[in-house]
Design brief:
By secondary structure, the chain is of the alpha+beta class. Helices cover about 30% and strands about 25% of the residues. The chain contains ten helices and 17 strands.
Length: about 425
């Protein structure tokens, strides 16, 4: 039975998605769970898995097309199986390429192309990959598209000859020095006259933060807290968590747990603004801001208020590893209700963060540093940490924000695990 490949909904209130690339060729055998295509969201470029075994056929959307969520863009068929009838509804696609035709172009799963026809006819030999193609990591593929590198001319340095991001960068550095035109462009770029291309994730982040900053009424509440107990608790838990979960617990892990439990007492901070009113979320899903090459992505720890510290640490490490490798899955970025951005490891004392809509707030955490403070009218040196809460004033007022920060500071001073 033919299985449709549809444009997935990866975020709340998402109406369309942009097809970045097909990771399999039309006519190629696909296994369930294999990465099939890349889709661009407001947060990142996501790899989407195949939902079933089959031969990729009837592809009706090309890279760059913007497709409505839920519309079919291809089929997975069995050998000898025909594509669904031509009259069945196909995807509504908006092309973003210059040659893509007018916006609002409606494509239908009509008569299959040569490769799809061969698959439908049960041809025993699948279409061979195009000449010069090779295994390439998603990060390298996006980098090659951005820099205009012909991957068919490259030999990968990764396992099995896989092309890596470093191979793409090396190719861009290795352009013919005798090419006067190329030298001219490079010279102009060094003088700042020619802008360099913005990576897809970086551009999405810029668009999203600009929209948030210009449409969400931000206000900020800052508190400094004595982090001595937080430091002691981490030292006590290091060996325990490493033995049980084989991962080192961090200050961020402790903060995720503390923040999640504090949010349970302040549901308005774990809410979203919508056109129909305020939605209070039942689950506390904490997103962490993770730095990757040329951008920052947010990955989610679901139901963090119900997880043990070890489970949080393990999930945080897995998310960080996948983010750095460019292999975050849709489930890794979906459903966040509150975000934590910690720049303490970069020795930042304090900062304010921009809210990630439709969330109501984001917590910015600075470095733990020794400072002179007054305790019982006497000066002493204590390890202090700055936390700044950015709030959407449509959802949270100043009193609620202050009450949340008061309880959060109390919990950081006396962590309970």
């Amino acid at each position: 039975m033919a299985v449709s490949v549809v444009m997935p909904a990866l975020e709340m209130a998402q109406e369309t998605g942009k097809l970045v690339s097909w990771l399999k060729q039309e006519g190629e055998q696909v296994r369930k769970g294999e990465m099939l295509l890349e889709v661009e969201t407001d947060k990142a470029v996501m790899e989407i898995e195949a939902a079933a075994d089959g031969i990729l056929a009837g592809v009706t959307a090309k890279p760059g097309d913007v497709v409505h969520v839920g519309h079919t863009i291809a089929w997975l068929v069995q050998p000898g199986e025909s594509l669904p009838a031509a009259g069945s509804e196909g995807p509504s696609v908006r092309s973003t390429s210059p040659a893509g035709g007018p916006e609002g172009l409606s494509l239908r799963a009509g008569s299959p192309g040569p490769v799809a026809a061969a698959a439908a006819a049960g041809a025993p030999t699948l279409a061979a990959p195009a000449r010069g193609t090779a295994r390439i990591s998603p990060k390298a593929r996006r980098l090659a598209q951005e820099k205009g590198v012909d991957i068919s001319r490259l030999t990968g340095s990764g396992p099995g000859g896989e092309i890596l991001a470093d191979d793409i960068l090396a190719a861009t550095r290795g352009s013919d020095p005798g090419d006067a035109a190329a030298q001219g462009v490079e010279s102009e770029r060094h003088r700042g006259l020619t802008p360099s291309p913005t990576p897809t994730v970086g551009r999405l982040m810029a668009e999203r933060t600009t929209h948030s900053w210009t449409t969400v009424p931000h206000f900020f509440v800052t508190r400094e807290v004595d982090a001595a107990a937080l430091i002691d608790t981490r030292e006590q838990m290091l060996a325990v968590i490493e033995q049980s979960h084989h991962v080192k617990v961090t200050h961020t892990d402790l903060l995720v747990s503390i923040v999640a439990r504090t949010l349970g007492k302040h549901p308005r901070l774990n809410a979203s603004w919508t056109a129909d009113g305020i939605i209070a979320h039942e689950d506390v899903n904490i997103a962490l801001a993770i730095g990757v090459q040329d951008a920052v992505v947010t990955a989610v720890i679901p139901r963090a208020d119900r997880l043990t510290l070890g489970d949080i640490a393990l999930r945080r490490r897995e998310l960080a590893d996948r983010a750095q490798a460019g292999r975050l899955q849709p489930s890794d970025i979906a459903g966040a209700t509150f975000t934590i951005s910690n720049l303490g490891m970069f020795e930042v004392d304090a900062f304010t963060a921009i809210i990630v809509p439709p969330q109501a707030a984001i917590l910015a955490v600075g470095a733990i540093a020794d400072r002179v403070v007054a305790i019982n009218k006497e000066l002493t040196v204590r390890p202090m940490m700055s936390m700044t809460l950015s709030c959407d004033h449509r959802v949270v007022d100043g009193v609620r924000a202050a009450q949340f920060m008061r309880d959060l500071v109390t919990a950081v001073r006396s962590p309970q695990f």
